[in-house]
Amino acid sequence: MTTSISLVSQKGGVGKTTLALNLSLSLAKLSIRTLLVDTDPQGGIALSLMGEQSAAQGLKGYLAGEPLERAVLSTRVPGFAILPTGTLRGLERATFMHQLEDGLRLSLLAETARDYDVIVYDTPAGLTGSTLGALRASDLAFTPLQAEPLAANSLPQLLEVIGDLREEGARVQFAGVILTMVQRQVDASLNVVDTIWQKLPHALVLDAHIPRDPAFLKASELGVPLGLLSKRPPPIARRFDELASELAKHIPLTDDGNDDPIPLLL
Amino acid sequence: MTPSLSCFDGDELSQLLHRAGAGTKPRRAVPAPVPTPGSASPAPAPAPEKDPTARVRAVAEPGQRALGAALAALLGDLSRVLHTSLFVADDEGLLIAGAGDAPAAAASIAADALRSLAQTARFAATRVDGLLLRTGRGAFLVFAPAEGAARYVVGAQVDDDIPLGALRAAAERILQTLLSRTQNHA
C-alpha cells in the first residue's frame, strides 16, 4: 500500500521544496521507499538539485503517456526516486496546473507507483491548481509553517479547503504542522511557535522543527540535499531524520511477512 | 475572508480540524484576562520579587528540599544532554532545583512564569506544553503539569539551538518524576 503525503502551504517561501527534498531523503534512509513528485510548475526540485530543469520528461512526460519508470530520476540513495516536473514553457505551466487539479491523474500515479511505500508531493504555494490535485490524491497533508506571523494566519484557510475536499469525497486528512525557519533569538518568531503550541493539539504539531540555518544556502548553492552535503553532514540535517521518524508513524509499511532481526555480519 | 488563527476560539478551531479530518480535539481555549469591576484593563500583576536569590535561600521546607535533592541528578543529566539550563519551581515561584549555567536566576524567572500563569490561566489544560517567556536574561520555555497534578513548573533556557521536542520530552520526564515523588510522599 502506497501512502500519499502532500506538503502544502497557502503562503510561499516557507521552505516547502527544501522540506520535501530533505524529508524524502530521510524517509528513504529509514528504508521507506520514497517517490518525491514535484507538482510545482516552477520545477523547484529539479532546479534545486541541478540548477536547471531536468532533461527527464518527469511528470509532464508521465501525463503525456510515458511509463513512470522512464519518467522518474533515480538517485544514488536506495529506495529514493524523484519525479520532477519536466520542462514546461510559457502557457504549458497553466495547462499543467489545470491538468492536475482534479487529482485523478495523481491518483492514477499512486496506483502505478506500487513499488514505493510513500509518495511525497511538493506543491506550489496557494490552494489552487496542482495543490488541490495533490490534496485530492493524498492520504495525509502536512503544512510547513514558517515561524513568522503571516504564515500562522493562513492555517485556517488550509483547514477550510481540506474540509471542503473531504466533503467532496476526498480521503485526505490534515496530519500536522511542521515549524520551519524558527529563529530563537527573534521574538516574533517565538510568538508564532507559542501560538501554534497553544492553539493546536499536541499530536498536530510535529516535535522536530527546522531552524533558519546558513547550511541551507550552502546546500542550495551546491545543488544537494543537506544530508548529502558532505560525508559528515551539518547537524541540522538530523532534523529531517527526526521529522522522518515522526512521519513514519503514519506510514503503513508493506508487510512481507518477515520481521526477523537482521544479522549485522555477512 | 477567513479570520487568522489567533481569532479562533477552541470550539471553532476544533470544528475546522474535525472537518479537515484531523480527528483530534484541540485543547481548551486560552481565556482572556478578566478585567476587574470598574476597570477597563486587566488587574495589574503583583510586584516582582526584589531579591530572587533571597527567595532561593528561603526554601526551607524539608519536603521540598528533599524533592530538590532527588531531582538534582535528573536535572543535571538532562541539562548536560540538552546543553541548556533547567529548573523546577513551586507554585509560589520558589526554586526547588536547578541545573545548568543560570540556576540562580531561575527563581525570579519562575516567579515571572507563575505570575503569567495566574493571569492568563494558560496552563489550565491537560497537556504538558510550553509557554515562552522572554525576560531580561533571554527566552525560557516553561512547562506545567496536567490539571490536578502537583503544582510545579519546569523551565528551560532556549537561547541555544535545541529541538523543542527534546525539551518537551525532558519536561515530561521531570514532571513525571515530580508527580511520582509527590504522590509517594502524600
Provide a descriptive summary of the structure in words.
The complex is a heterodimer of chains A (266) and B (186). Chain A is of the alpha/beta class. Helices cover 42% and strands 14% of the residues of chain A. Chain A has a seven-stranded mixed β-sheet with strand order 3-4-2-5-1-6-7, sandwiched between helices. In chain A, a hairpin with a 5-residue loop joins strand 3 (73-74) and strand 4. Chain B is α+β, with helices and mostly antiparallel strands and 186 residues long. Chain B contains five helices and five strands; from the N terminus they run H-H-H-E-E-H-E-E-E-H. Chain B has helices at residues 10-19, 52-57, 62-82, 103-120, 164-184, and strands at residues 86-90, 95-99, 130-135, 138-143, 152-157. Chain B has a five-stranded antiparallel β-sheet with strand order 2-1-5-4-3, sandwiched between helices. In chain B, a hairpin with a 2-residue loop joins strand 3 and strand 4 (138-143). In chain B, helix 3 (62-82) packs antiparallel against helix 5. At the A-B interface, helix 9, strand 7 and helix 10 of A face helix 1, strand 3 and helix 5 of B.
- What would the average pLDDT of chain B be, to the nearest integer? 65
Secondary-structure element string of chain B: HHHEEHEEEH
What is the typical, i.e. mean, pLDDT of chain A? 87
* Fraction in helix of chain A: 40-55%
Number of strands of chain A: 7
How far apart are the termini of chain B? 53 Å
Number of helices of chain B: 5
From the structure provided, what is the oligomeric state, counting identical versus distinct chains? heterodimer
Query: Segments of chain A where pLDDT lies below 50 for 5+ residues?
Result: none
Shape of chain A: globular
Q: Any idea what the shape of chain B is?
A: elongated
Number of strands of chain B: 5
Total helix count of chain A?
12
Strand order of the largest sheet of chain A: 3-4-2-5-1-6-7
Which percent bin holds the helix content of chain B? 40-55%
Beta-strand percentage range of chain A: 5-15%
The largest sheet of chain B has its strands arranged as 2-1-5-4-3
